[in-house]
Amino acid sequence: MISVRWRKILSGLLAQPTAPFCEEAVISHLRGWAEKLGPSTQADRYGNLLFGFCRGRVARSFQPWVLTAHMDHPGFVARRRRGREVWGRFYGGVATSYIRRGAKMVWFTPAGPVRGVVESARFVKSTRDHDVRVRLEASVDVPQGTPGMWDLPAMRIRGDKLHSRACDDLVGLAMAMCAMEEFIRGKQRGKMFLLASRAEEAGLVGAMGAVRSGIIPPETAILSIETSSARHGGVTLGSGVVVRVGDRTTTFDPAATQTLCDLAGELAKRHGNTKNFAFKRALMQGGTCEASLFHQYGFPTAAVCIPLGNYHNQGRRGIASESVHLSDFSCGVRLLTALSHHSANAGERRLRKVFDRSWKRRSPLLGNR
């Protein structure tokens, strides 16, 4: 279903522990990947990473894409320890009923993983996070700032589905990495950027930092990549990559979205059947993603996602692994790869022609009623 190289990228990234403000393992992994592959690397003062690659000359009118995905997942951050008890905070949109006594988690300390059980949790209204008290299996040092995650497998493939403790958004980031690697290993001219942002689950903190730091290249368009809850979008796992027209907060740039839809339609015709490429256009309103922030700050912004099961580890009977369909992942990589040589403003030119033709046909000023 997916190539060996794509699977290696997935497994390597999903093995990294992460939580809002504690993405150091993911950052280190990305830097190592970039050193081997060769894209330029830049970091801002907020810890966001930007990778870029250009091959050949591109026209002045060409508007390249900045693929963006976040490096964190809802999780724990340690604050202090006494004996076998650790006090910390849980960041991320998870219902209070899931963060309950007896829930199993693991701290990723410098000395190795340390398992624990949630003893108590208190919802903090002002931040919408949870203060937690965790009892460790053994009296081991858990330094302040240590990331913690639910005690679930990093990656497990069963049939056509991938299950992980952190699909959102490491799978989205892996899609972008696979696309950039395909572009760099290929021969077609074009230009592509990848922005890996921090602390999205704590309130789009990294995306706001990227806007303030100026790390986003000028004259580019932004493509937000997510795994988004299938419950709130009218899509199912295995239905293909989703061109996301909006989220719970806003709708995105119509011209950039049209560019994606046009390109996805071309790919569907080229592959000839839905087994190789399938896509849907949908409003995924399960939450607010980084695209809303970038759009509000004036960047031409579009979004794609793949359907996600057990959003934020919220299963029917408690904490569970998130899941995505491997064919959706493959479709997403194919679409993102094609963007490297496809200008983001192509949809704008197409829409302008459509509107011009409509006006000339219908305008009463021209006597065409």
What this model shows, in words?
There is one protein chain. The protein has 369 residues and is α+β, with helices and mostly antiparallel strands. The chain has two domains: 4-73 and 154-351, Aminopeptidase (3-Layer(aba) Sandwich), CATH 3.40.630; 75-150, Thrombin, subunit H. The protein contains eight helices and 19 strands. It has helices spanning 4-14, 24-37, 167-185, 205-213, 254-271, 290-296, 326-338, 346-362; strands at 40-43, 49-55, 65-70, 75-82, 85-91, 104-109, 112-124, 129-136, 147-150, 156-158, 161-164, 190-197, 221-229, 241-246, 279-283, 301-308, 314-315, 318-319, 322-325. An eight-stranded mixed sheet has the order 1-2-12-3-13-16-14-15, sandwiched between helices. It has a six-stranded antiparallel barrel with strand order 4-5-8-7-6-9. A three-stranded antiparallel sheet has the order 10-11-19. A hairpin with a 4-residue loop joins β7 (112-124) and β8. The longest helix has 19 residues, at 167-185. It is globular, with a radius of gyration of 21 Å. 49% of the residues are buried.
